Task: structure prediction
Amino acid sequence: MANPAVRARIRRPHAREDAQSRAARNPVDAWMDQTFKFGGSAVKRKTIALCLLGLPALAPVFFISRAIIELNSNTLDNVEADVLGTGSMSLLILTLTVTPMVTATGQHWFVPLRKWYGVMIAVTATTDGTLALFTGLFAGGIVGQVTAHTFLIAGFAMVMLLLPLALISNNRAQRWLGKYWKRFQKLTYTIWFLLFVHLALLEGLGFQHGTNGPSASVDGNPVLHQRVYQLAACSLPLLVLRLPPVKRWVNKQQEEDRQWLVNLAVLPMAALYVLFFAFIVNEEIFKGVSAFRLQPVNG
Amino acid sequence: MSETYGDTYGDDAREHQLVGGFLIGTVSLVAAVSVILSLYAWINPPGQVPPPPPAHHPLTLADRYLVIAGPADRQLAAEEKSFLASERGDLIAAESDLLAEVTTIQSFDKRLAAIAFPAAITTTVHALILDDQRRVSLIARQARSASLRRLQSFDRRVQAASAAVAAEANLLSKTLNAPTSSG
Result:
């Protein structure tokens, strides 16, 4: 109050100004903000890019949709958990990838994907959980399907946490919750941890289960199809690029126009991420297509 | 005062920079090694590496035994059938069949002796070869018979010798976990 000039200097810029300044700062964001004529109307480049990047999030539910509509118990019993479970895992990884991508590249045009992928994880995981209640192999009815094994309890807990997060993902809930909204969203990290627990209980930490688990019917590689390894490899850059000292180091290099050094440092982690994520996608497509054809490939 | 604050702040910032740089550098190094190991696991999946063939595994020995016993059995059966037909009226043909049997049995024994069996099985193999040699010696004497009657007089003894060989061959087959062969 005493010195308005100082207050003006330290005032955080308005969100719109902030976005504009970012777009002006990063040439890729500026390029994505440009419009072009599409069917007689002006469309932003990033709209098309976001649609193309967002569409695959529908794939897991699409793959299993035919079996649900036709109530094909053979497909639901054999590959439902694989198709929707692997789909949920890949969507969680993609959701968690957005923030580190912003840190590493300085670009922001893809940030809306975080919300979309987040909502689609909830849809996919809830479908997975609901179908598992009716197609599970354990005795004891619906309660038995949820509590028969510790990995099921971890999976059920993930679904229970994802549902409220999806429900509060809209702008109205964000305004209503105010400062608590972001704290609620940090439950995503708990889900991330629970996914590790779920997969470790499901597959163990060695790759011996890979041969009779996910890999046998895909390409026979027990290491790169081991789900705990896949999640660990993909999580490495996502975790490291969230650490405050690393973020500060990256920001410093970008401020000093040394993006090449950031790229060099991130490259091995990105390679590891891409390598393992490719195997997740490979399995999802392989089993998903088999599920859609109602010729499930289990194992 | 402000200079001191600035220095302290600068030191903290530099320290954070160092920690951040060290962290990302170390993890990148770990990631690079992991990529190399993953690519190796991709090219050479552990599940697909064929196990080395066991040198003295009973199943392998059984396979090697059957490779020589099977053809020898079939050949010996054909020669015995021919001998049974000729011993009633054709001495020369019968002697020729008996000599063929001797050659077949001796060839089998020679090839059997060439297999490196473990000590526990060697005793049975030696007993089988010894019984076979007794049978060979008997058949050779039978082949030297001057008449059909003399030749036919050996039949019971040859049958007894063959039964002894068959018993040893069955014992060896059981030890090797292989299908029974008459040796």
In short: Chain B touches chain A through 25 residues (CB under 8 Å). The helical segments of chain B are 2-43, 58-86, 91-113, 119-143, 148-152, 155-176. The radius of gyration of chain B is 37 Å.
